[in-house]
Amino acid sequence: MNCPFCSIVEGEEDAVILDETEDTIAFAPLDSVSEGHLLVVPKAHYEHLFDVPEPILHAVTERARTIAERLRAHGFDGVNLLHASGEAAQQSVPHFHLHIAPRRHDDELDLWPASTHDESDFDRTYETVRTAIENGDAL
Fold first, then answer.
1. 45, 74, 95, 97: which is the annotated catalytic residue?
2. What's the whole-model pTM score?
3. Where does the HIT domain start and stop, copy by copy (predicted)?
């Protein structure tokens, strides 16, 4: 397997590592979208959200929250947590990760671009999702 995040975890690839726990590691991405942008990843390799065991998902999200709280306490006004699972969602590295993009009121970033999709099927889609959740079915 040729995973750049696993290489960082193993110390084979250089990275600016900002935080590390037993199950997670946080480091600066190659291309930052905001001041202080970083990634939180599980040390074990899981390709996307659908593969991550619940305890590891919990460890990653808890660490992301802890880091976000520290960022807010040190001058940032908020954060965006960003994630993509799967090619259709534009996942660029096949290793589960969360982006933490620290934000300031005056940073003028738009990490929520306007959508151009047709909303005509929203009601039907939401009803399908609601029913699947209530029945415990796969979508």
1. 97
2. 0.87
3. 4-110
